[in-house]
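note to self — DONT lose this again. spent like an hour looking for the file last time. sequence + predicted structure for the chain T wanted, 243 res
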Amino acid sequence: MRILVYNIAYGTGAPKSYYHNISTATRYVRTPRTHFDKIMDFIQEKDPDVLGLIEIDTGSYRTNFTNQVELIAAHLKHHHQSSVKYKHGILARALPIIRKQANAVLTKKKLPKGNFHYFPAGFKRLIIEVDIDGMRFFLVHLSIQKRVRKVQLSHLAKLARGRTPVIIAGDFNTFSGSHEIKEFQEELGLFNPNAEALPTFPSWKPKKQIDFILCSKHVKVKNFEVPKVKFSDHLPIIMDFEV
């Protein structure tokens, strides 16, 4: 089985530097579809069984009201489950563009309806949980604030405890280093298949490993890779495995 996890930055493309990221910030308001088309073609070529997409637009002004989840699901002929990243009842759910910002899980095989959980802290709070043939898969996008990430990891550990086999993946935003998740890994008995600590961010000059696929001992990893493709500010991560 192959899993691919990718923060696609809403299909806004890959900056060439931090300065270029700021100077072209208008792309977060309106962006051409060409970037997303490249992402879809890349993912189709890699042919994942399970696809976790972070920062995907479900039909805002930015994408000319095109739902990227539905578009890529049709392109890949995958089933999909998605939700916006913000908890019900907060202002973000009413703001243009932001209210359409989501995460999504897509699969070749049709799965039972997953669960959408929410962290108790942070702006981005969504946790997607799905059952893949008895294996629990969680997709997350953690806070950029270290203090909040600690709270989120504690909550996630309680949620995932006792659910084996398990894979927890996503953008962890561990800018201080992977030591941030060491206690979390030990508590749940998870290992990081990225044995060489290959960096995933920023795509134009990768220095930090902030995107992870963490696995319980029941998962036998066949291959792990970080393709150096520049379609987003992050690099994708791919793992081949069996349970």
